[in-house]
């Protein structure tokens, strides 16, 4: 008799009562046979924890002492969760009852699959892919991230064009399946990131350690998105720029690090000028602050992960070109046209 791997769905919550009221019922209807549900609360000041305690007594609650963001919050909570597979699920995600089984089956087919994500569609436009994960994350040679089904702010309709399971570069943190042993092996999330890009950094380290990251189209979830920081928020822009630079410094092969970061510096200056010309001076300031804090971080950086150096071009889910060039100048705004 086959024993199902134990799965823990862990929802990180911060003042998310409205989302929990709306979406926790769908998670509780999950049909997987060896499942525990956990709410990890990041020191919320609303009554979301009391709501879950009163209405969902079967959900285990872990109270983090402070709000250390997505990265620190999950690291803290997962240290207290025992399961073969963690499922890190955003509080603003609706799931279907059988959403867990296909992903676990795919991961069970190869022990080298350390992480996986389902197909992610938009809650408010359910026939379209959702920004945060779509049909799996990719990255170009300069560290710009995008997805199958979403490039920058252009999302595609789901017409079955990405219904093939395949290796990707990164799996979205909004619905991330990851083997607990692999999570611990590569050191979990990097707390310095706080939020944004931490799952890309984690998946990069998983690939450096010899594991696979995959996309499972047979599982679908629906994500609201922007629940904590909406698109266009300068704070979100700051975190994305700063964390992307930190991720590149940490993970790029030493032979490639300087040339890539030099090209990024030039392109990010152009992005700042464009923000100013477009009447968004706060965005330009956010990019400046991101570089300032990245350089401060780099002065004190100590390699916390003893992983082999691997050339980016040898990894799965890497576009061997510059995404923004093809998007803006060649007008290739769909993944299949880009690749």
Chain-wise SSE layout:
Blueprint: E1 7-13, H1 17-28, E2 35-42, H2 48-55, E3 60-64, H3 69-78, E4 85-89, E5 93-95, H4 100-108, E6 113-122, E7 137-140, E8 145-147, E9 150-151, E10 154-155, E11 166-167, E12 175-179, H5 180-185, H6 198-208, E13 212-223, H7 234-251, H8 257-277, H9 281-300, E14 318-319, H10 323-328, H11 335-338
Parallel strand pairs: 1-2, 1-4, 2-3, 6-13, 7-14
Antiparallel strand pairs: 4-12, 5-13, 6-12, 7-8, 9-10, 11-13
Helix pairs in contact: 1-2, 6-7, 7-9, 8-9
Descriptive notes:
The protein has 339 residues and is α/β, with parallel strands linked by helices. It has helices at residues 17-28, 48-55, 69-78, 100-108, 180-185, 198-208, 234-251, 257-277, 281-300, 323-328, 335-338; strands at residues 7-13, 35-42, 60-64, 85-89, 93-95, 113-122, 137-140, 145-147, 150-151, 154-155, 166-167, 175-179, 212-223, 318-319. Strands 1, 2, 3, 4, 5, 6, 11, 12 and 13 form a nine-stranded mixed β-sheet that branches. The chain is globular, with a radius of gyration of 19 Å. The protein starts with 6 loop residues before the first strand and ends with a helix.
């Amino acid at each position: 008799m086959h024993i199902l791997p134990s799965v823990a769905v862990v929802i990180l919550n911060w003042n998310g009562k409205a989302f929990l009221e709306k979406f926790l019922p769908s998670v509780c209807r999950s049909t997987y046979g060896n499942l525990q549900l956990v709410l990890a609360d990041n020191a919320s000041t609303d009554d979301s924890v009391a709501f879950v305690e009163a209405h969902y007594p079967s959900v285990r609650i872990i109270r983090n002492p402070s709000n250390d963001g997505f990265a620190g919050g999950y690291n803290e909570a997962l240290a207290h969760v025992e399961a073969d597979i963690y499922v890190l699920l955003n509080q603003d995600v609706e799931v279907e009852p059988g959403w867990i089984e296909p992903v676990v089956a795919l991961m069970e087919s190869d022990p080298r699959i350390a992480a996986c994500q389902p197909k992610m569609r938009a809650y408010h436009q359910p026939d379209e892919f959702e920004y945060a994960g779509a049909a799996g994350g990719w990255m170009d040679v300069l560290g710009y991230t995008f997805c199958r089904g979403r490039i920058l702010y252009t999302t595609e309709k789901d017409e079955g064009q990405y219904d093939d399971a395949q290796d990707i570069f990164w799996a979205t943190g909004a619905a991330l399946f990851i083997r607990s042993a692999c999570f611990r092996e590569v050191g979990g999330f990097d707390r310095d990131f706080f939020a944004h890009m931490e799952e890309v950094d984690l998946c990069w380290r998983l690939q450096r350690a010899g594991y696979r990251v995959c996309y499972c189209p047979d599982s679908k979830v629906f994500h609201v998105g922007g629940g904590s920081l909406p698109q266009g928020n300068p704070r979100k822009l700051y975190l994305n720029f700063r964390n992307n630079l930190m991720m590149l410094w940490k993970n790029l092969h030493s032979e490639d690090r300087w040339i890539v970061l030099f090209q990024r510096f030039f392109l990010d200056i152009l992005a700042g000028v464009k923000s100013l010309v477009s009447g968004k001076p706060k965005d330009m300031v956010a990019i400046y602050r991101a570089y300032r804090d990245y350089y401060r971080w780099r002065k004190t950086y100590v390699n916390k992960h003893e992983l082999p150096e691997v050339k980016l071009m040898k990894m799965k889910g890497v576009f061997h070109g510059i995404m923004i060039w093809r998007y803006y100048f060649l007008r290739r705004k769909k993944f299949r046209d880009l690749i």
